[in-house]
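Sequence in, structure out. Go.
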Amino acid sequence: MYLPLIALAWLFVAVLMAAAEATAPNGSVLGALVTLVLYGLLPVGILVYILGTPMRRQLKRLREQSPPPDGP
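Output:
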């Protein structure tokens, strides 16, 4: 239930970290992109995939149980 909120909050933190990296005197835009990917997108993607597995299994089970729709 809280997964989208947690994911958005963590991505917000990662974007702020990347912005701090890009605007730091010794920082760079490349460093900011690496920070965003390694601290933000990759962990959130893994988290959403792992925690979304039970829902995907349930949807697959429901699709297998329901009769196929009548088509023309």
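Check: The mean pLDDT is 90. The first helix runs from residue 3 to 23.
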